[in-house]
Amino acid sequence: MMSTEVCSIKGVNYRIFVAGQGDTMVLLHGGHTNLDIWEDQLAYFADKNFKVIAYDQRGYGHTDIPLEPFAYEEDVRQILDHFGVEKAIIIGASFGGSVAIDFALAYPDRVRALVLAGPAVNGNKLPFRMKVEGIKCYMTAKKKGIHTAAAKFEANRYWKYFIPKNESKRQRFMDIFQSNGAFYTWNMKLTKKLQPPAMNRLSEISAPTLIVEPADDLSFNIQTCKLLERHLPNAHLIRIHDTGHLPNLEQSDVFNETVNTWLKKL
Fold first, then answer.
1. Closest Cα to residue 129, out of 152, 158, 103, 105?
2. In the chain, what are the helix, strand and coil shares in percent, each to the nearest 5?
3. Would residue 5 be called left, alpha or beta, if left means φ above 0 and alpha means ψ between -120 and 50 degrees?
4. Angle in degrees, CA 8, 11, 16, rounded to 5
5. Is 247 exposed, middle or buried (0-12, 13-18, 19+ CB in 10 A)?
6. CA distance 60 to 221
7. Secondary structure (3-state) at 222
8. Is 56 helix (H, G, I), strand (E, B) or coil?
9. pTM for the full predicted model
10. Does residue 244 contact residue 163 with C-beta atoms inside 8 Å?
11. Are 221 and 118 in contact (CB under 8 A)?
């Protein structure tokens, strides 16, 4: 079991993992998850001469829920400042990818490289079905609790792209899902969006970027990977097979080796 700590940074208590020495790497999880989704990456990259920082983003896991307006990309900056890190490799999955992109736009001089796994992009219009299913999940959790929401999420065929096929990894994901009850207790309107949205500013990002496209992801998410490949000036796309939306969990060995090999070439 990984060892985490609670760090108070600018009045926010973050559950955080820090290990290793070398170039700093920050891991940003996506929706329905928390830093535990990176368990297969943490020791691996710490052993590859990286200083690895992962944390529960605000409102997820055991980090404080937001009580006032905030921006996720500003949380990244404050965490880097707290640890005295000037420049970092930012790795983001799903929603964490959108945070990584926004951080690269807000603070380009602080990004050494980006790794985006099945990423979202702020300003990219979501499919109607995705929004509806997300709202249904949210309302179930608020009204009936996280365990009922998790059971419905797992049984809903729409979310099959999200849930690992391997039984043990499926169970790990569902355990993580159920540890995020706090997410459904705060007002998401407190989240401040970077303006103008990233979708219209991708050409501004000059950092070397690896896009990890999960072959069995939702078609919209695959299209988003290809959109980023076209519009990011310094992007390279790699497809990982036999994985849905969470390649760092489903195909962790392939993901780790792919990212490490790419980083060594920088």
1. 158
2. 45, 20, 35
3. beta
4. 30
5. buried
6. 22
7. helix
8. coil
9. 0.97
10. yes
11. yes
Integer Cα distance of 119 and 231 in angstroms: 14
Q: Looking at residue 168, what DSSP letter applies?
A: H
Q: Where are the alpha helices (DSSP H) in the chain?
A: 39-46, 72-82, 95-106, 128-144, 146-155, 167-178, 219-231, 247-250, 252-264
What does the alpha-carbon distance between residue 118 and residue 244 come to, in Å, rounded to a whole number? 9
Beta strands across the sheet bearing 23-28: 5-9, 12-19, 50-55, 23-28, 88-93, 111-117, 209-214, 235-240
Ordered per-residue pLDDT tens for the chain, 266 residues: 568 999 999 999 999 999 999 999 999 999 999 999 999 999 999 999 999 999 999 999 999 999 999 999 999 999 999 999 999 999 999 999 999 999 999 999 999 999 999 999 999 999 999 999 999 999 999 999 999 999 999 999 999 999 999 999 999 999 999 999 999 999 999 999 999 999 999 999 999 999 999 999 999 999 999 999 999 999 999 999 999 999 999 999 999 999 999 999 99
Looking at residue 70, the DSSP 8-state letter turns out to be B
Token pair 């707290």: residue: 82
Q: Determine the distance from the C-alpha atom of residue 260 to the mean position of all C-alpha atoms in its chain, rounded to a whole number.
A: 18
